[in-house]
């Protein structure tokens, strides 16, 4: 068994030796992965393993290059490799490069002595490039290219399974290539070129690194609140600002969709309203709208069928309301906070009203406390009751957080308050016979 730091040295050396014997990258990955499982104690992590394989590859390539190319001017090197200027510039920048450590000088006297060696080497260099860059493809496209494309489009956390579905990676060779590409994207710990990092304690999950910043122009900011109207007197208690999310977490049959349709009805003359629905077909939606005392032809909003990736379809601007009924996630509920963050980032001044399932009697929607990170107003609905779980912007000096209201829902469309808003903690104390 090979222990401790010797594992890293051994993996790098063996990888270099395999490349020297003419093995391609896929074969090297297979051999070193098997070696890792059988001889290293403990086995190297996937990231460290592929880092050592890449190190061995670079060592082989650079040593081969240095034997023949030391002192060669870049113009002659480009010609020997038969590369366009664009491809040559790209080669110079690649991690796996035959020239990244070659010292370049302009001494013409060295050129003639190197020309024949360069010509002899160019064929093997070309073959090596092909092995490194195109040893595994999907649909004729190199796996590494597909992985880079996926990462460029990703946001937040993604899984290896999502990447495999995106690239249609099914064979062992394709998945080895995918793993190598992910490792290369992870390893540049001190470089701005690092693209992703692993999610701790979640094997097979990565987080895209978002390094871009957008300055907040608070000096010229408009403090005017959005004039969105909410049912049951909520507009008198809370303020909604452009770019805010309103979260409506409701138990089954608690009136979530009725609440969302009321938001549309109250605001469709002042705002551009877009309704995203994941459950109802055309006929069912029409039936629900006919319950309102309002001509069907006068409903002024756009309805869209959508069940996922809402952030990609958000309509932006301060005169816009996006009503999402509802945010569907049936497992991996921790992803809910990511989906809400994506929606928030896409709003650009618009308001989003997002419905979410919750368990009966709980204040939290699926996703728990993390689902409260982005919303500025969070409501919890059970049959006949609604509670303000979180309100960041108050309309008055009276704190609305924790307030609760009993209501009656008539004909599936009309909310009728039963009394006034009260402090939910006070009601609990009275039920227990205690004092508040």
SSE blueprint and pairings:
Blueprint: E1 2-3, H1 6-20, H2 25-39, E2 40-41, H3 46-69, H4 74-81, H5 85-93, H6 109-134, E3 137-138, E4 141-142, H7 143-153, E5 157-159, H8 160-167, H9 172-186, E6 196-198, E7 205-208, E8 245-250, H10 256-267, E9 272-277, H11 282-290, E10 302-305, E11 320-325, H12 335-347, E12 351-357, E13 377-382, E14 385-391, E15 403-410, E16 414-417, E17 422-423, H13 424-431
Parallel strand pairs: 1-2, 8-12, 8-13, 9-10, 9-11, 11-12
Antiparallel strand pairs: 3-4, 5-7, 6-7, 13-14, 14-15, 15-16, 15-17
Helix pairs in contact: 1-2, 1-3, 2-3, 2-9, 3-6, 3-9, 4-6, 7-9
Describe the structure.
This protein is α/β, with parallel strands linked by helices and 436 residues long. It is 40% helix and 17% strand. It has helices spanning 6-20, 25-39, 46-69, 74-81, 85-93, 109-134, 143-153, 160-167, 172-186, 256-267, 282-290, 335-347, 424-431; strands at residues 2-3, 40-41, 137-138, 141-142, 157-159, 196-198, 205-208, 245-250, 272-277, 302-305, 320-325, 351-357, 377-382, 385-391, 403-410, 414-417, 422-423. Residues 65-73, 75-83 and 94-135 have low confidence and may be disordered.
